[in-house]
Amino acid sequence: MDTPLRWLADGLILLGLVVLSIAIYGIIRMPDLYTRLHAASKAAFLGVLPFLLAAATTGDPAIIARVLLIAAFLALTTPVAAHAIAHAAYLRAERMETPGAVDESGRELPDAE
């Protein structure tokens, strides 16, 4: 692998590590399930994407094809999975703890005890 491509791959891996580290901080720091889920689902795609791009710098067509398939799979399944988890939490009457959060569904949730 050429030196510029090696530097690009290293930079992409570093970017992926930074994004995933920020996401971990968001998961720990956020007050409720819905905002934690937002941080986790963004990290699942945006944190893994630089790793995939770094793998694609090899120039091997088979690896590039796999990278494209993995990226497409993540782009399609991550939002669906996050929505399914959030919907299940909503049906279980999971409260939003974020200050200023408004439930616009009009549904009355039972008081947490």
Question: How helical, in percent, are the residues?
Answer: over 70%
Low-confidence stretches: none
Per the principal axes of the C-alpha atoms, what is the gross shape?
elongated
Main beta-sheet annotation: none
Count of strand segments: 0
Q: Report the radius of gyration as a whole number of Å.
A: 19 Å
Secondary-structure-derived class: mainly alpha
Task: Average the pLDDT over all residues and give the rounded result.
Answer: 86
Q: Compute the separation of the termini in Å.
A: 60 Å
Question: What is the count of distinct domains?
Answer: 1
The DSSP helix count reads 4
Strand portion, in percent?
under 5%
Order of helices and strands: HHHH
Would you kindly provide a written description of the structure presented here, covering whatever features stand out?
Helix content is 71%, strand content 0%. The chain is an all-alpha fold. It has one domain. Helix 1 runs antiparallel to helix 2 (33-46) and helix 1 runs antiparallel to helix 3 (49-56). The radius of gyration is 19 Å and the shape is elongated. The termini are far apart. The model has no long low-confidence stretch (mean pLDDT 86).
